[in-house]
Specification:
Elements lengths: L7 E6 L7 H12 L4 E6 L5 H6 L6 E6 L4 H7 L2 E2 L1 H6 L4 E5 L2 E5 L2 H12 L3 H4 L2 E5 L3 H12 L4 E5 L3 H10 L5 E3 L4 H6 L3 E4 L23 E4 L8 H8 L3 E3 L2 H16 L7 H17 L2
Parallel strand pairs: 1-2, 1-3, 4-6, 7-8, 7-10, 8-9, 10-11, 11-12
Antiparallel strand pairs: 3-5, 5-6
Helix pairs in contact: 5-7, 5-11
Length: 286
């Protein structure tokens, strides 16, 4: 790597055109006056190991990793953080002392977003219900477990997946059938949707929020649309609603600091920039 090459990072995925990571990181680079760049890199399935070898060369200081490469990124690493090891997935890569290192910042991003939008959540959250049992659910279950939530219950349309995730949590969570959801909501302090239901192009998440008590928090990791039907329903009941865009923004900050040496902040200006991009994109599809 040339001593004079400005540092650059990227997001690697297949496809990757939809990613808003370049907009986020470019905003921070500009605001902080850093001579660097962040771009999109399309990496076809089967070629991730070759891409990983390029990190640390020709100015490429690191990468974010998105679908479908998070497990391949984990396998390519010489060292991974505790979060990444528990999740078996990596979304942030860099090289140190010749070794490829990996982290999973989804846990930190989810918790930081909760702290931002529902600052008192930890003090009032004893029971949490998590809908979904995919990779995002694994990260969120871990985050809640490390935040000393007393009871975490995973509910999924395919019960076997919920059972498997509960077992993988090492006792940090339990599973329950979908039919038990109304009774579970009646005792829940926090409801989190980690599934794709409610996303544009996907079916709605059809659940009745009436059993939730008035102090409950409803979080949805979906951010397209910016307000999902679940969040709209929670707000109509006067419940605290935590949208998914904040998780995207907060999970990006640790990687930026790793690559460019400065910890960025999630500001209303950045949020407005990404919201505007999402809204313009949605209009273009109509």
């Amino acid at each position: 790597m040339s001593r004079h090459a400005p540092p650059r990072a990227c997001v690697a995925g297949w496809p990757v055109d939809h990613s808003r990571s370049p907009l986020i990181h470019s905003h921070w680079l500009q605001k902080l006056g850093i001579d660097g760049s962040y771009e999109k890199t399309a990496v076809p399935p089967g070629q991730f190991a070759a891409f990983a070898e390029s990190i640390g060369k020709d100015g490429l200081v690191g990468a974010n990793v998105t679908i479908p490469h998070k497990e391949a990124a984990f396998a390519a690493c010489d060292w991974v953080s505790a979060h990444a090891a528990d999740l078996g997935a990596v979304n942030t890569l860099w090289r140190a002392s010749g070794k490829l290192c990996g982290d999973n910042t989804d846990v930190a991003g989810f918790l930081a977003n909760l702290d931002d939008q529902a600052p008192e959540w930890q003090g009032g959250t004893r029971r949490a219900v998590v809908i979904g049992a995919g990779g995002a659910a694994r990260a969120i279950v871990r985050g809640l477990a490390t935040s000393a939530v007393d009871q975490i219950i995973i509910v999924n349309r395919t019960p076997e997946r919920a059972d498997r995730l509960a077992l993988q949590s090492g006792g940090g969570a339990q599973s329950a059938p979908w039919s038990a959801l109304p009774a579970l909501l009646a005792e829940a302090d926090l409801l989190v949707n980690t599934s794709s239901l409610g996303m544009i192009g996907q079916p709605r998440l059809e659940i009745d929020l009436a059993p939730l008590h008035a102090r409950a928090i409803v979080a949805d990791i979906v951010y397209i649309p910016l307000e999902t039907p679940l969040l709209a329903a929670s707000r109509s009941r006067g419940l605290r609603a935590v949208e998914g865009l904040g998780m995207l923004l907060h999970q990006a900050a640790p990687g930026f600091e790793r690559w460019f040496g400065v910890r960025p902040t999630v500001t209303p200006e950045l949020r407005a920039l990404i919201e505007d991009d999402i809204l313009r994109s949605d209009k273009g599809k109509k």
